Amino acid sequence: MGGAATVVCLQQLKSLLGLEHFTHAADLVSVMRSVFTQTHQ
């Protein structure tokens, strides 16, 4: 349950940062990798 909440929070963070390309994978590693590799946009 905590993992799902983390993913939802990170997806909200994605929208705040304005990231266009984001992973649809639900695991934390994929989500974090997507956030950190796209912070240059």
UniProtKB/TrEMBL annotation:
Source superkingdom: Eukaryota
GO-annotated cellular components: membrane
Cross-referenced InterPro entries: SLC26A/SulP_dom
Cellular location(s): Membrane
Keywords: Membrane, Transmembrane, Transmembrane helix
Domain SLC26A/SulP transporter: 1-41
Name recorded for this polypeptide: Sulfate transporter 3.1-like
